[in-house]
Amino acid sequence: MLFNVPEPTAALGAIEFRIDGGTTRKVDYVAVEEPLEVRVVHFDSGRLVTSKVAVTMRTPGDDFELAVGFLHSEGVIR
């Protein structure tokens, strides 16, 4: 069974600005981006097989919906 566990979509990070030759550092929230591997489980000659379809970068959250939409748009599922 798949679970869509919420993950943080932002993290604190140090931002460095360079304006007119000067440098300023500021702590601010930055977007989090992580890889998501999409796999399909199917039968092949009576055996259960797992096939890796793609790896994509995404902001965490709604992973199941993203995977289903991706598989549908690529014609893997209907």
Automatic annotation (TrEMBL):
Gene3D superfamilies attached to this UniProt entry = 3.10.20.10
Q: What domain of life? A: Archaea
Q: Which InterPro entries match?
A: Cytidine_deaminase-like
Q: Which GO terms describe its molecular function?
A: catalytic activity
Instruction: Give the protein name, as stated in the record.
Output: Sulfurtransferase FdhD
Organism per entry: Candidatus Marsarchaeota G2 archaeon BE_D
